[in-house]
Design goal:
alpha+beta; Immunoglobulin-like; 4-stranded antiparallel β-sheet; 3-stranded antiparallel β-sheet; Ig-like_dom; transmembrane; transmembrane helix; Ig-like domain-containing protein; membrane
Length: about 200
């Protein structure tokens, strides 16, 4: 064969590449398999930054904050005790700072028989209340046209009765039909009176 008649022939690549290995996966991403030697570094970086179905399902996306743990429930066993304590405190506050004393009734009693010469009548007023603490404001009025200054009686808790006295002294000859009136002005208005006779000579 002459050299002038020789020409190179382009051979297929399979003549010098050698036998191909079995296709085995070189990277596993969830359900995606990548084969062969054509996985470049750039493709690998993209694959690392791309969330997989498994990451989305389990909430483990790259850069995502760690999942919160189970929310701690506050213990409920102290709720009944706290409610009882609040009820007791409310009751004590109501007893101490709640509604004040209320007047139920007022009566006045004078001496039964005639009052003798230069005698002193002891007129008794009885005020019954509901037992709550407070202060009664009152005054006495007499049938001779005089009356006392405003007076006060302080009642402690659970005391349900106040006994108020008026001492009325008479002098001289004659007869007088006396009227003693008790007027409660606070916490509410109440009036009661009693009559008796002074007789001398």
């Amino acid at each position: 064969m002459n050299d002038d008649d020789y020409s190179a022939t382009e051979l297929g690549s399979h003549w010098f590449e050698g036998p191909r290995p079995d296709p085995t996966p070189d990277r596993v991403e969830g359900e995606v398999l990548r084969f062969g030697p054509g996985v470049t570094a750039a493709a690998a970086r993209r694959a690392e930054n791309t969330p997989t179905a498994a990451q989305i399902w389990h909430g483990t996306l790259p850069g995502a904050p760690p999942p919160r743990g189970p929310r701690t429930r506050r213990p409920l066993r102290y709720v009944p005790a706290a409610a009882i304590l609040l009820a007791v405190l409310a009751f004590l506050a109501w007893r101490e700072y709640g509604p004040r004393v209320a007047v139920r009734s007022v009566t006045v009693t004078a001496p039964g028989g005639p009052l003798g010469c230069d005698g002193t009548a002891n007129v008794l007023g009885v005020v019954r209340t509901d037992g709550r603490p407070g202060t009664l404001t009152y005054h006495w009025e007499r049938s001779d046209g005089t009356h006392s200054a405003p007076l006060r009686e302080t009642l402690p808790r659970d005391r349900k009765e106040a006994r108020l006295h008026l001492l009325w002294t008479f002098q001289g000859q004659g007869t007088h039909h006396a009227v003693a009136r008790l007027v409660i002005t606070s916490p509410s208005t109440h009036t009661a009176e009693a009559t008796f006779t002074y007789r001398c000579g």
